[in-house]
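Sequence in, structure out. Go.
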Amino acid sequence: MVVLRLAKIAVLAALACYALLVAYNNVVDYGSNYEFVRHVLSMDTTFPGNALMHRAIADETVWRLAYASIIGAEALAGALLALGTLALLARLRAPAETFNRAKVWAVAGLTIGFGLWFFGFMVVAGEYFVMWQSKIWNGQDAAFRIATEMLGALIFIALPDGELS
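Output:
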């Protein structure tokens, strides 16, 4: 069914735009989210006297490397999602086997996006650096929302497509 293939392409296109826009925003307005990374890694707004402060990183070089890695992962996910969108669009009316094989770029982009927003923000920032303790620098709700969108799209895209009627 061509409409189902078009739906998958539209979902990928929207997520590609999102990831690329986030990466672009982080480059152009570097300071805004750099402060977020700095505060999360330094753990300076977590509960006073928490027993996990030995994990805090007070090194500006590490903050900048972490932020560059985040921006790089956002851009890579976005680029792969865009490539996946184009690959599927080019094979819209192709046989099912050809269309299904072309999903590789989309799956890679969605996996990187899920890895960044779930592992990077929920696991590393949220739990290791106890971002959840901060009333000011807590991005867990947004990260959870984005990770869920990436995972939902991954499941949807990975469902095998049959032959067109």
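Check: The chain is about 75% helix and 0% strand. The mean pLDDT is 97.
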